[in-house]
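agent: user wants the structure for DNA-directed DNA polymerase from Meloidogyne enterolobii. delegating to structure tool.
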Amino acid sequence: MEQLDSVDQSGKRMGRPSIFSQPIYIEIVMGPSHEEALELIQKGSSGSGRRPRYIMKGIDRNNLIEVRNDDLGEHAKNHCLLLAVQLTLLYVNMVKTTRANVNFLNLIRGKGESAKLYRCKLIKDMLTQMEKHGINYSPNLSHYSVEEHVPLIQKYFNEKFPGEYRLAVFGEEGHMTPLWKGADRAKKDICLYLMDGHYYGIRKLNTLFGKHMYYCLECEATYHNKNEHRQTCAAKCPRCCGMGADFPCKEIENYEINCPECFNLFRNPSCFERHIEKGICQIFKRCKECGQIYRVNNNEEHICYVRFCSLCRSRHRRDEKCYVQPIVPKHSQTYLMIVFDFECELISSSKNTDDSSSRDENYQLHHVNCVSAMLLCSTCMQNNNWKEKYTGACKTCGPGIPRMRTWTGANYKNPLREFLEWIIFGLDNKRKGRTLAISHYGGFVFYSFYYNLFSRRYDMHLLLGELIKHFGIEPNITRTGNKLYEVLIKKKNGIYPYISFRDSFNWMMLKLDQLPKALGLDIDEGGKSFFPHGWNLNKNMDILLKNLPAKKYYYPETMGKQRRKEFEEWYDMHKDGSFLLCEQIVEYCEQDVRILTHALVRLQKLFFELATESSKRDDVLVSSMTLASACLRHFCINYLKSNQIGIIPDNGYHKDTNYSAISIKFIKWLEHKTGLQIQNRQSAEGEYRITASNGSVLRLDGFIKEKNIAIEFLGCAWHGHKW
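agent: tool returned. relaying tokens verbatim.
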């Protein structure tokens, strides 16, 4: 209802009738879950005879151990989990010789009887061994879950091979956090990958998320160099930088040695020798004054008791306050910019009596049947060459190609798909720089039942669906509800480049036809023209009309008073002219793109001109997604001084903690009922605190000292503890 009120108020200001003046019908549509949607996408037809691409999970697929159990008979077809564990166990303990690798590949991929029998034997052996150890692992289930059945296998390992193996399961589109992992560290990790309900083994955990990388199962994070991995890691020795199940190095009683070079104190001879062999003295040193261990090759000189603060992104003492720091703009690299616009045929029975036929691809309320895109780059914008019809000798845009491209339903079966093919692959998918793809009204969908059509802010939603459904790309999305700020395709070498789709309405919150006047644009477009969206159907593309389409196809009832008046005058003047949709839609769409391009270049120039000096010029199109963030960033770059605006701590300067009013009421009621004194947030001592095994401090909602009883009332949710 709040959204309806907002639209109603906006319409009244523009002179439109209230949407509450007629009955409103609200339709609630239940979509599939994320897992069901992925299954439908991968099973569905791509419509072009091409095999649907898998959704990129962000991992190296060559690192997965194939688990084939579908050809092993009824007794083994559901035991991919057990087979994945057994195969990974074999690989981890295997001597990596050429012959051993060939034999292993024959085992996992072999279709002969011997390979199948051995895989069956691995499953049966695991079931037999778990039964001997009294582990209740049912052999006849149709599904084996991570939460219920993987812990049973870990229990078996703990009993038969104590301290030897730890299980971990990854999944969920390549997220670095495992779905499940064993509680205790072990000498070897048996890691699995769950994808589409099937378990795979992982050969090397370090290269799971890419080449030349390491992965720490304790920290659940990647790193490039062992010496640069965080010193607080539970599986790393902060003295010698050794990592694994045997680290940190154990302290030996009555043994101490000081390194004369790095001044670190060692309580283990092996740790001391190891740090010399690795050259740790050249990387870390210990300050004699404050005892802090700091990195030698850091650009900043060590100052006692001064540390880097992640909140204000500066270095200061812990007892000093945090301040918003001035921003130093980075030198922006050359980037490619695509300004585009969609036109859609509207499948709406109330506005178009003749609906589009069911043979049309992507049958839906909005079907993209025209896409126009203009190609330019940051260099062309600076040199003012972007207005030329061709790119000339520009290496970033590509030499000698037209800047404007248009795809329509008259020439292409799916203009949206053709546009995406062009922007991803047609402009060299190996390009190194960023690509910004910008449309106006591109990031929000709201349905108006009174006007019986969607808000014009839908471009990125249609684009997102095509990316997932046809290209198998699942991009990163920055959004608030249905409002999309960015749809980001991250660069993947050899597959697709870095592309950021953004909505220019977040910078310029005006209609497209209002931008020329608002920004003082000197363009010869003659103002935004009128277009009969109701006539925009693929079947009408090649129909030549002697006169303009009827007024109803322009939806005059959706216009404001001034715009309606302009339309009536324009229509009376041009109504006797001929009209061919396939020509007019190209002219209209390209006009929108040119207006938006002028506006974006002007916006960038305005922020450049507002900079107090040339070194503080910041490209708003790259660094910000909204006008608010652009203005705040401009202030922090040009006017904010150091230590001028303080950052108030989340819990206030008195370090108060969050607590719920209902928890206090519950504690008070419990005190009244039992007669016991319960320490809580409102007590003189405050909340009772306990220290967890990992060193973090936990605050209890209630604590009965006489009985040593802790009371928690949704405590972790309010205190923000991570479990």
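agent: one observation worth passing along. The chain is about 30% helix and 15% strand.
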